[in-house]
Amino acid sequence: MSFFQKALGVTAALASVRGAYAKLDFSQRENMVVYWGQNSLGASASGGGDEQTQKPLSHYCKDENIDAIVMAFVMTINGPGGAPEYDLANISKECDTFDGTNLKNCPEVGADIAECQKNGKTILLSIGGATYNEGGFSSEKEAIAGAELIWKTFGPTKEHGSAEEPVHSAQETAPTLQPTETQKPATTAAPDPQSTAIAAGTNAPWNTWNTWNNNNWNTPNPPATQNGLWQPQATSLNNLAPQLIGRESEPASTSSQTSKVYRPFGKTSVDGFDLDFEATNSNMQPFAKRLRELMDGESDRKYYLTSAPQCPYPDAADKDFLNGPGPVDMDAVFVQFYNNPCGLSSFDANSDEQPQFNFKTWDDWAKGGSKNQDVKVLLGVPASEEASVSGFVPVSELKPIIEYAQGFDSFGGAMVWDVTQAYDNKGFLSSVRQALTQSASRMLRYAFRRSDEY
Asked: Which residue ranges have biased composition labelled Basic and acidic residues (predicted)?
């Protein structure tokens, strides 16, 4: 793409209306995505917040600086009773759980999601986070079943798409697969050695869990431990079997058994899923691939599949579905440019090469390694010093970084961790939004000057 062609794209972006009813749009380069759900400020001992610092989702959907909100996190895919588990800190704390499961029933959150969507905001649900400890799946079949379970639980209902009714905890009768071999528990591979940071309230890696204990774990839902080590929970194939029904390729003997499809947000569906794994896991490629297939099978509206890798490339946790073999079609990556040597603080304003800050590396992946050649790379930034172990830079230093990143075709905007920290850092979101639009305008003016030379 020529520089002038880039400029035309920027012109289209600037010509569009982006206000209180803005929506995620990866054809543009000014998207603002924030994470919500972990109450990072309230969980931080030095952040000055408390348990109630995080407001309901609908509160943040009124912010004209925000295009999309990522709800964090679903930290267990196959929990007790064959149901997922999620945690939204103080927001989900008082919600009841469905009988026999650890799945919170939060219809108020569902109402907030619907209100946000009505106001034009895109709502994604992130799977993973620091406390995810299942280690993935023991087989491709289990991974596919896990994706279908997530889709049935949080995706569209039958009247709005292909996911099965009933809603909430009503029952349905379905055949159950009979296992033909002993189930092997999921195992967790070695963590990414480059992922060493852990911080209260941040989406940090788990590889320092064995140096922590539950008394000084400041984020929601510390992992189950024994002698200071986390204990993965094996999942029975019997729990997963009902979710495999309907796939013609699955050979199995069947028997009638009553199963439940739980809908914690009622009939409301999220707009897609974000994969934020902080350590290597097994069979995540077929899991992500099946999610993509389910999304693409819906014709009523667009669903998004994103990922939040750390900046070291390739990301050890996400490389199976980002790089392959058989990479999955992703709409965007929200690269965490913090807590690592390749982050924002390594940017050299006096250098065009940027030997450490590696946005160019991710742009190269977008052009040559990604299955989706139109995938967008968003600049992931912490909203305050307390939001990350390292990598926070003030907006005055962030502006030239944004301007540099906007020179790449794949640039799609900014991701902020997290919204509670951003609101405490007064003016941060509006300043980042301004930096995105001003940098785009500056690029446009420069492009037209370049075009006059030809």
From this structure: 157-167
